[in-house]
Amino acid sequence: MTDSERSIPPGWYEEPGSARTRWWDGEAWTDDVRDSDASPGRKRKAQLWIALGVVLFLALGIGFLFIGPGILW
Asked: Cα separation of 25 and 23, whole Å?
């Protein structure tokens, strides 16, 4: 094991020349693999939910600012 491998935190990393990712446990590569496109879908879904929450928060905030507390009733 090289010094640079010791400082790499555990996580999923792309395999060079492959469409898969492999789990690095912080000390060695494991046999756990998955398709590389598995994680971007989750990330995109999370980003959409966050954006929706921000829009809802802003809409309620602007409504509260201009209409007053009556917007909630």
From this structure: 6
Give 11's strand partners.
24
Which residue segment(s) compose the domain that 32 sits in? 1-36
Q: What is the pLDDT of residues 5-15, one digit of tens each?
A: 568 899 999 88
pTM of the model: 0.42
Phi-psi category of 9—alpha, beta or left, where left has phi over 0 and alpha has psi -120 to 50?
beta
Give the integer Cα–Cα distance in Å for 53 and 4: 40
**What are the backbone angles phi and psi of residue 8, rounded to the nearest 5°?**
-80, 125
The 10s digit of each residue's pLDDT in 18-67 is 888 899 999 899 999 988 765 566 777 888 999 999 999 998 888 888 87
Do residues 29 and 47 share a domain? no
